[in-house]
Give the backbone structure.
Amino acid sequence: MTVIETAQLNGHDPQAYLADILGRIHGHKINRPDELLPWIWTQLNSANSEVA
């Protein structure tokens, strides 16, 4: 419940946030967990969409 609420407080669709995080977590570097946090996820998402 905390993850869902935090995603909502940061202006994200919780389902989209969880789907993206769960899809990337397997290959994510163990020493960079902060990149998966909701307040940083916005920046990563917009950076990825600009590259595409």
Observations:
- The chain has one domain: 2-51.
- Residues 38-51 form the longest helix (14 residues).
